[in-house]
Design brief:
This protein is α/β, with parallel strands linked by helices. It has 2 domains: 170 residues, 3-Layer(aba) Sandwich (Rossmann fold), CATH 3.40.50; 184 residues, Rossmann fold (3-Layer(aba) Sandwich). 38% of the residues lie in helices and 16% in strands. The strands form 4 sheets. It has a 6-stranded parallel β-sheet with strand order 3-2-1-4-5-6, with helices on both faces. The protein has a 6-stranded parallel β-sheet with strand order 11-10-7-12-13-14, sandwiched between helices. Strands 8-9 form a two-stranded antiparallel ribbon. α6 links the parallel β2 and β3. About 5% of the residues have low confidence.
Length: 397
């Protein structure tokens, strides 16, 4: 049985949807008009992709964007994303326009007025095809209420009832797919060709010009992660003292320059690490909180390697096509690892004691041990470093 708060939230959503449907009966209009929209189904001229949050999740949608653009080269592609995460589609060449949906899609952060305004905005565009990349019934309803004839999205636990093309998604931790593959399954379901998909983020020319080429091996470290609007999961962080030991080995044994990265919330953490290292000269560069995401991507392009927790910077590093060592704990690399999973330049380290993730399908399960991050040793990560960057290859190519 649902807790009282959850029951109230569910009741409120149901009432909101029913009231809205009574006022705007576009679902009925869709059904009546469907026989006359066959051309739009086969040759859409205007496509919308809906995925409000969060940064890492949006990076994992970029392989799908490549597929959509390849399949429909002349169509207009519009991406609906939140204020927090719209920077991702803004840096993808397949996207023509980005609609900022504010906080719509983040539970408890938006009002009925916000939802109605977004629906009206979508309706004005007269889209032919919608890809809804979220399992929320409130989001899958958006294109239905906006009069979009074809609506493709994942269907988990029946939450995709308003879609025309409902693509099954497993809700079992024993049968997890990578999130990028979940999104690509939507393309497969409607017969779009897929070849060698990869994540992609393109810094602007100005962002790239702001970065100087390093004179020696540069390795990016990300010690934070786990913080997004509506969710805080700092259990995904590897212990800071182990990052300290790893950084010392990178500096003294490989002669590497360590680049500390992160957002404003990561400043205290990385300052603590920098102070503990006490490195002289330019052995440690701390850019935490000093870059935009686009500038960070340009910085990562100049790195030989990224090492960090399961996070949006980890996915960003893979999206700018550099080698990645990702440290996992409550989440599973099978679902959230650096993509593509078969890329030999990416290594995901996971030592979960039960072999089952505590966090899957966007929810954290109860955990009695919480030892998964501590189970990853410095030597585990160091061996991965030597595998990707042998000790004799420390010069910049």
């Amino acid at each position: 049985m649902l807790p009282g708060t959850k029951r109230c939230e569910l009741r409120q959503h149901i009432i909101t949807v029913l009231c809205y449907l009574l006022r705007y009966p576009f679902a009925l209009l869709n059904l009546l008009g469907r026989p006359f929209r066959g051309r739009a189904w086969r040759h859409p001229r205007s496509i919308v992709v809906i995925k409000p949050c969060c940064l890492g999740d949006l990076v994992m949608t970029t392989p799908l964007l490549e597929v959509i653009r390849h399949a429909y080269p002349d169509a207009s592609i519009v991406y609906v994303a939140g204020t927090w995460s719209k920077v991702i589609p803004e840096h993808h060449p397949a996207v023509d326009t980005v609609i900022d949906c504010g906080t719509v899609g983040i539970p408890g952060r938006y009002s009925f007025s916000d939802y109605r305004k977004l629906t009206r905005t979508l309706r004005v565009h007269h889209f032919d095809l919608a890809f809804v990349l979220d399992r929320s019934p409130m989001l899958t309803l958006l294109p239905w209420l906006s009069g979009i004839p074809r609506r493709v999205g994942p269907d988990s636990l029946g939450r995709g009832f308003s879609l025309t093309d409902r693509v099954p998604v497993s809700s079992s931790p024993a049968h997890l797919q990578h999130q990028a593959e979940v999104y690509l399954d939507l393309a497969r379901a409607i017969g779009l060709p897929i070849a060698a998909p990869r994540m992609r983020f393109e810094p602007t020319a100005q962002e790239r010009q702001s970065v100087s080429r390093p004179s020696r091996l540069r390795v990016a470290l990300f010690t934070g992660g786990g913080s997004n609007p509506g969710m805080d999961l700092t259990a995904k962080r590897w212990p800071l003292d182990r990052y300290q030991e790893l950084a010392r080995k990178l500096i003294h044994e490989l002669g590497a320059q360590v680049l500390l990265i992160g957002g404003p919330g990561d400043v205290p953490l990385n300052q603590q690490l920098q102070d503990a290292l006490g490195a002289q000269g330019d052995a440690v560069i701390n850019l935490t909180g000093k870059t935009t995401l686009g500038e960070l991507a340009a910085q990562l392009e100049q790195c030989a390697l990224f090492i960090g927790n399961d996070s949006s910077p980890m996915h960003l590093a893979a999206a700018v096509n550099i080698p990645v060592i990702a440290i996992f704990g409550p989440t599973s690399p099978q679902e959230y690892g650096p993509y593509p999973l078969d890329d030999p330049r990416h290594i995901a380290i996971w030592r979960h004691p039960t072999g089952q993730p505590c966090f899957f399908l966007g929810k954290m399960q109860a955990c009695d041990h919480c030892t998964c991050m501590q189970s990853v040793t410095v030597d585990d990560v160091w061996q991965a470093v030597l595998q990707l960057i042998p000790s004799h290859q420390t010069e910049i190519r």
